TrEMBL record, chains A, B:
Pfam families: LacI (PF00356), Peripla_BP_1 (PF00532). PROSITE patterns: HTH_LACI_1, HTH_LACI_2. One of its GO terms (molecular function) is DNA-binding transcription factor activity. Keywords: DNA-binding, Transcription, Transcription regulation. InterPro entries: HTH_LacI (IPR000843), Lambda_DNA-bd_dom_sf (IPR010982), Peripla_BP/Lac1_sug-bd_dom (IPR001761), Peripla_BP_I (IPR028082). This is LacI family transcriptional regulator. Residues 20-74 form the HTH lacI-type domain.
Amino acid sequence: MTTTTGTTDAPEGESEARRATLRDVATLAGVSIATASKALNERAHVRESTRDRVLAAATELAFTPNQAARSLTSGQTGTVGLIADDLDGRFSLPILMGAEDAFGTGQVSVFLCDARGDAIRERYHLDALLRRKVDGIIVVGARTDARPPLVGRIPVPVIYAYAPSTDTTDVSVVPDDVQAGRDAVSHLLSAGRQRIAHISGDAAYTAAQERATGIASALEAAGLELVGGSAQFGAWSEQWGRGAAQRVIDQYPEVDGMICGNDQISRGALETLQRSGWNVPHQTSVIGFDNWEVMTTGPSPTLSSIDLNLEQLGRTAAELLFESIQGQVEPGIRRITPRVVTRESS
Amino acid sequence: MTTTTGTTDAPEGESEARRATLRDVATLAGVSIATASKALNERAHVRESTRDRVLAAATELAFTPNQAARSLTSGQTGTVGLIADDLDGRFSLPILMGAEDAFGTGQVSVFLCDARGDAIRERYHLDALLRRKVDGIIVVGARTDARPPLVGRIPVPVIYAYAPSTDTTDVSVVPDDVQAGRDAVSHLLSAGRQRIAHISGDAAYTAAQERATGIASALEAAGLELVGGSAQFGAWSEQWGRGAAQRVIDQYPEVDGMICGNDQISRGALETLQRSGWNVPHQTSVIGFDNWEVMTTGPSPTLSSIDLNLEQLGRTAAELLFESIQGQVEPGIRRITPRVVTRESS
DNA sequence: GGAAACTCCGAAACCGTTTTCGGAACGCTA
DNA sequence: TAGCGTTCCGAAAACGGTTTCGGAGTTTCC
């Protein structure tokens, strides 16, 4: 109740008054406002006793410098914008967390905007960010498919995360899905698997294609090929995983490893295998992508997965943004290396 | 590449110059900066031809008003802080989305802070928010257990969401877990179930207790009691759900309904039931809490669940914050009504 | 004992807006 | 033609800080 400033007009509440300003501090300390400023910022030569008086005054008045006023002179606001395409998607989050982390608690503040995949909304948020004079912007996509860059002349650096910009002079950070595919294969190979099937997700996704590419290339390098000859594309769902796995074991009972497009498909496949009496991982290994904790650690056996290191992706994006703000960075696409998380299913 | 301002010092790039300011617009339009301001804000009496010239100049220079400067005079920044306790927890997200939604795209911008359940971090973020003179703050907890209020004198309104403040003079918005429990019971009762078991989560959580309370009261009102006499408390995991469900059907084979502490327990229970050859929902209904899409729609049959309407909770929090900024709002705890989402398992 | 070199401190300009208030130009009436 | 109202516009004062630059006071040194 000491919060709102909705005092009707009762003059009694002098204590409720406006927030203390530098002038107030200076007056209380008996110095000029210039000196107060210097004292608080540890600037120049200010006698120690003077500084102490100023600091004391500042704490007494609970003084917090007005960042807006400060930004006016410095030109920098110490804020960045983060435009996400879909917040409820689970990919934005770790990236956002990584970025938040890299910016350092308190130093840089993050404006969060959810564009929901809508270009109009995106434009709207962008304008708001520019009005607020953010020092830079990170654009986080919902899928790894390349997206058109932000339109208009943007007077601050922009980093594209997860979904790269189609403009190669922009700076983008994406997961290395091809490598992720290769890693999945070599993981299964090192577990002694040779007859591997690939149950993928929606073929329209770049991620599906790139993972398939990595898988194919790694198998070829090992002189092998996919059971069934090629990947099965479908949807990113458990249901698809269940059905596709059923068809695989019906047609190719010799299969001893399954690489699934994501952890949901992986979970669906596991369920089918178990229901059909297959022993995972003894008879068949199963591995997915994304390392979505709730999917991978829920079932028994727990599911191995390729983690795309999205938090690190977010941190990298933030670091790149920093560098861009300071000077130039090399344009182009950076790929974040994935890592294998081994659990009971392989 | 036209983004960074890292021009070493080459004076050639006059085009790369600093962002256009109101003065530039005024000069270009041949008017005073006061008039330019008025024209852009549709203020006072400005001759139409003059306004048109100013607007033309503004668009030509791609002028965006400096919000910081504007805030200096208005005193309001049009920003709010959102301090979340754990971003990766799935409860903050919908709340955050609801809030973002209610604030309206562009009008109000949201500073996102992740305190990770650490009071020090929280303090740090809070200071940063106050420096930036946010107009208000929403604090989102990770659990519904009451939490101590923010420390220190906060000169702006604060709304506590999901986790209420222990201070009853604060404003809090929480899900109505007691009602959620009641709803679960009445849903099963209306499906003709009478012998209901309750497999809950960690008893240390207020949510677990409140749901149990609601369940108990609704059953009592119907003249029934829980199979086994009381709720089974354990963990919020699928594994616990599997084990607990097994014990329930072993000991009480007459059970015809299971209320599970959350969707993960629910899923675990479903798996056990199916593996034991029970038919869901014919033989036994299953319902959980939270309505976590990936958990509820993944398995077959899909799982019914009580949705706590977290997005609406977020919207409500945002609206309350608005009202607090304008004037006063009644302190205390608001409870958001849940809703039953019926799927195949009941 | 006076000049030079320091050490502290404050007046004032500035950042980019909004807003008040007075003045100029104009049309109209007497 | 003087007087009066309107209508537009601009000078200037905020807003809350930072920073430059010069002035006053104190040492140090010859």
